[in-house]
Write a structure and sequence with these properties.
homodimer, 696 residues, alpha/beta, Rossmann fold, seven-stranded mixed β-sheet, six-stranded antiparallel β-sheet, 29 strands
């Protein structure tokens, strides 16, 4: 779909200029200097020729077809120019200039107008308020962009709305001497979206890894679908900024977009298999390794070093991130003792010593490549003046070319004096960094990606015994009568419909009915005042627990009848369940995304300790297990100090039934099962709340 | 004391060589090429001249005094050479070579021998197994070191045992174009220690900031004392590696040293006012800013940007770190509206727009410098080709030269095309980095340092009513009888001596005494079996709680008498205290450091949630308050959901009395007050354990 944008045969620039420091001049210049393989058509009312290329008065005068048109003219002139492009049969328009949605309502109206006109003509718009695209493919060489850093060809493709961040990343690669495949920064993104670009990168054979920066997801549903498909083909490394309230505000202001909540983006990244970064420096550095190295098949690192301290730092970083530095096999140690210097440390890390040359490094590399229990190689390479650093570098490159296990190198050198060594590693595709922690973090990212890639979350269960219709009738009734919250009895009916176990209960209209309900249920019981007009029962004294006989039930109900003036007051009589562990399970609708399901322990754990886990619907069995085991308080649920654990399978089933319920009943805005009481072999919902909203 | 080492008038090299890639050649070459201002004396048995300088057969032949001697000879020859240096009156010997303690017992014996000989002659040893020192002072220019990166003069002085890490840092500064003042990497550090070097840097006027890397502290007491003194004069930025078990092992192997526990190092850094880093990259980047920028007087940042996305990222980092980006004053906004482009965003961040030139940047800078509520400036500076980036850089430098508030710049540019702009900022002392998060983290470090510097922890209280002698008598008796744990009754006596409130208690020999004790105390009571041979009372069924009458007490005691076969079995009768919050307060001796005091909530909080705080003795009032407020569960102690908080002043006093006790009684190895029961207005120790060890 975006082929003519990223691989244009011809590019016109409306607003091209002879003025040296203008964008209309720069884009023409960039296309020429980057060696664009197609035709360039400057469009200018003033000039006959721009930078040696014939200019035309109008796009309509261009003698051949035009794939891409840049517009570098004031926004008010853009709609008409789009009409002309339509007449010309142009496929893509890149709107580099500002003056659109990002400046307020007036600009937004122009943007709308442009979009409407473009749709009419079948033109796709890239931008506005954007930098454009770059494609380094030697057959294309399209620098449709007014930035200033010219990338080498490479296999990393990148997309970011923000031009500033795109440029930061771009320059980082340039400084690291790493190439780029494609580049897209689409600013206001009024038409062509990030998911479309991701999808295009996914199909591009020259793209090995995709780098994504977002400040929010405009269409999370579409993003989820596309990202899942693309992430199955190649690694997507992503960062979401605007995570703090202040950051989100800053994000909202600069591209006229809306920053969505953090949590949802994180869950989407997790669900689709995107490797998420919180730091743009680590994002860029990791991309370098992904562009050349194989993915390790496990988390066990072989470390080779010719200096002590940096190995200590790297070990800390790797071990803290959950990677292992396992002992070597006896056979490996035997080989190393034979081939390394006598004072070398034979173990893992292997300290080949500062005096080691190519031969010793090679021996160590060969050994770790052969070790079955080692999945990746971390290398500390300091270049003492008394060794032949270039021969070491050549050995590293030779082993790297075998592509058996990833090699990440911390190269400690003066890059001016050891330019030859740096060049050998670079040309040989060995990612090298200047700090041990940097190299260790990069190796961690590769390893984490393997975990993401091999994680089988399975399919969500569909419980056939669920009665969706029954639930829908109740919810629909609530919607039709304009209620936000539905009554406890109704909530219990819905839970019942989905076979989510609720502590035994009855509804009673008065004291006599309450007593006979309590007798049926068996004492002790709880009495709760139930009325649509009472939302927080405890706050109004509408709950009495641990009632052990008929007299207590009767007097409690009579007292509440006198005191509470709610409409249609009824009483919920429920089995009282002492002991057990209190849990909270909830769900909250996220626009365009289904629901976020949450799990935590009741009382202080959620509120004070912030010990909560989340997943996006539909929640699979594996994910439900993760929700439990990822809590810091998980040992309490599994059983500590001789205590028995809770009925985990029961919890997992409730989470999944709840996931099915909110997926099938999207009008559920918020649902709280609080508390759920869990025992060793049983689990019951004891109180619950549901609010509804018409999302259609 | 180290003046002749860091400012030598003459340097000799024993083992100097004409062989180009030998260390004995390199050191002479480094001295020459770095422009050493003193005399160089190569000592060689083979050559008459090395690199154009007259060589001598023996150090004794050198015609003048010698301050520093490098020895680049096999370790077995070193002791004799030291004797010769002694005869010559040499002040310092740098032992660059290996073959000492790091290779095992044989080498360790040589190292001991060297040290003994040096002491006899009044010679100080630097190393062995080390790189040496560098001093860039234009009057000195001492490159007494065999590394390969030549630093520019600067104001950062650095010390690290590890040569590899010292070199990594060194090269990082070189790559960033930042100068160094002094450099010391002392390897095995058998004589001259890190505290001595720190102290020297502290007194050096040319050193503005000290950078320290350690893998463990050999003599924590000395370190504490010196670091406190030096940190009061200038910033010390430090990193401790070997934090994981695996990392500590790696650290122990490479310099023959011992990596001490993490926690103690962190507490020492905190106590002495050292700014601690967990990442060597951030350490180096922060040092750059400390070397040129003033320390901000608060945490409120003014952000100036000419691009959107990078401001979002920086905002996230700053806000997450606790910094504020406050609104501007009305006056400031008025000025900005007048001086910036109409489309600019007037607020904080101030978006001057990509089209902003020097004038607009200057206006924004002047405004934030004038704003009283702003303490520091974060700058995003992307260099679009259509603006005069150099004039912007010049304006930034001019404002920077006012030294009113720190300025940290994220410079997004192609450093080759915009070399002039980079050079202007560099020459003007404006720290600039290539990523928004990097610049934001650096600004955070400056801000955190201000907090450390201005934090008043006060003096520890000394409670005059404490009866030290009484405690010492009990502890001494335990030591003399070879016991590790002392009995509960004795523990309570000691707590009593320090007026730490214990729930009312009596000792009873039998059931009858127990009943009368319980009657005195008032029911309900707890009965605990008490004998030196019972350490874990609960585990052997030696505790019965909530006994409400004489009969219960009698039958419990009689049953325990029958069942427990402990020696000299007695019974501790204690007031039973239901309700209240369970706390744990403890202390543990740290060799050479006094004690580490810990505080947490009882039950799952410490064990499962790992919610614990620590301080080093002596604990001041401010520190005790921090121990409480830094817990994640602190809100529970302060009171949530209408609950009353606990008696915080009582807890603070117990922590401080305990701190005084363990400081005055260093034989206390470990002490646990567990639980301490806290109410709204009272607090009592309910159980306690003390173990002793003869540390003399």
């Amino acid at each position: 779909m975006l082929d003519a944008l990223f691989r244009p045969k011809s590019v016109a620039v409306i607003g091209a200029s002879t003025k040296e420091l203008s964008i209309g001049n720069r884009i023409v210049k960039n296309l020429i200097e980057f060696g664009f393989k197609g035709s360039i058509y400057p469009i200018s009312l003033k000039a006959d020729e721009i930078l040696g290329i014939k200019a035309y008065q109008s796009i309509l005068d261009v003698p051949s077809d035009v794939d891409v048109v840049h517009m570098v003219i004031p926004s008010k002139f853009v709609p008409q120019a789009i009409d002309e492009c339509g007449d010309k049969g142009v496929k893509f328009v890149i709107l580099n200039g500002g003056g659109f949605a990002e400046v307020g309502p007036e600009g937004a109206a122009i943007q709308e107008d442009c979009l409407a006109k473009a749709k009419k003509h079948g033109i796709r718009i890239f931008g506005p308020n954007c930098q454009g695209i770059i494609n380094t493919d030697p057959d294309v060489r399209a620098y449709c962009n007014f930035t200033f850093t010219r990338p080498d060809p490479g296999s990393i493709s990148m997309v970011a709305l923000s031009g500033g961040v795109a440029e930061t990343i771009h320059q980082a690669f340039s400084e690291m001497g790493i190439g780029t495949r494609m580049y897209a920064s689409n600013g206001n993104a009024c038409d062509i979206t990030i998911p479309e670009i991701l999808s295009y990168y996914g199909d591009d054979d020259g793209t090995r890894v995709i780098l994504l920066y977002v400040e929010g997801l405009r269409d999370p549903e579409m993003f989820l679908e596309v990202a899942r498909e693309v992430a199955a083909k190649k690694p997507i490394l992503a960062m979401k900024a605007g995570r703090t309230e202040e950051g989100a505000k800053a994000a909202a202001s600069h591209t006229g977009g809306l920053a969505k909540e953090d949590l949802a983006t994180d869950l989407i990244f997790e669900k689709t298999g995107i490797l998420s970064f919180k730091d743009e420096v680590e994002l860029c550095q990791a991309a370098v390794a992904f562009s050349s190295q194989p993915i390790p098949t496990g988390n066990r690192v072989g470390m080779i070093t010719n200096t002590g301290g940096p190995a200590v730092i790297a070990t800390d970083v790797l071990v803290n991130a959950g990677l292992k530095i396992p002992p070597l096999s006896e056979k490996a140690e035997m080989i190393l003792r034979e081939k390394l210097f006598p004072e070398a440390t034979v173990g893992n890390p292997i300290d080949v010593l500062a005096t080691a040359g190519g031969e010793q490094f090679r021996a160590a590399l060969d050994v770790v490549m052969e070790e079955d229990q080692i999945n990746s190689v971390y290398l500390n390479f300091v270049t003492p003046f008394f060794v032949d650093a270039e021969s070491i570098a050549r050995e590293i490159v030779e082993v790297n070319n075998q592509k058996r296990k990833p090699i990440i190198c911390n190269l400690m050198t003066d890059k001016r004096q050891w330019a030859g060594t740096v060049e050998i590693l670079k040309a040989g595709g060995v990612p090298n960094f200047s700090f041990p922690s940097t190299a260790a973090k990069v190796l961690t990212a590769l390893t984490n990606y393997n975990e993401i890639r091999t994680r089988e979350i399975g399919e969500a269960r569909t419980f056939k015994d669920a009665n969706r219709e029954k639930a829908e009738v109740i919810l629909q009734k609530a919607l039709e009568t304009g209620r936000e919250f539905i009554s406890t009895a109704e909530v219990y009916e819905i839970l019942n419909a989905y076979r989510i176990p609720v502590a035994d209960w009855r509804i009673a209209a008065d004291a006599a009915e309450a007593v006979s309900a309590a007798t049926e249920i068996n004492f002790p019981v709880v009495v709760k005042a139930d009325s649509e007009s009472i939302i927080h029962k405890s706050d109004v004294g509408g709950v009495a627990v641990d009632l052990r006989d008929s007299d207590s039930v009767r007097s409690v109900v009579e007292e509440m009848e006198k005191r509470l003036t709610a409409e249609e007051l009824k009483f919920l009589i429920q089995k009282y369940l002492p002991g057990g562990k209190e849990l909270i399970i909830g769900a909250k609708a996220e626009e365009g995304l289904g629901h976020i399901v949450m799990f935590g322990m009741g009382g202080i754990y959620v509120e004070i300790m912030k010990d909560v886990s989340y997943k996006l619907t539909p929640v699979t069995t594996v994910e439900a297990q993760e929700m439990i085991s990822s809590l810091q308080a998980a040992p309490l649920l599994k059983g500590v100090r001789g205590e028995k654990g809770i009925y985990e399978d029961g919890i997992i089933e409730i989470i999944q039934r709840l996931s099915q319920m909110v997926s099938e009943c999207p009008v559920i805005e918020e649902l709280d099962l609080n508390p759920v009481i869990a025992y060793e072999d049983q689990v019951f919902v004891v109180d619950a709340r549901i609010s509804v909203a018409d999302s259609s």
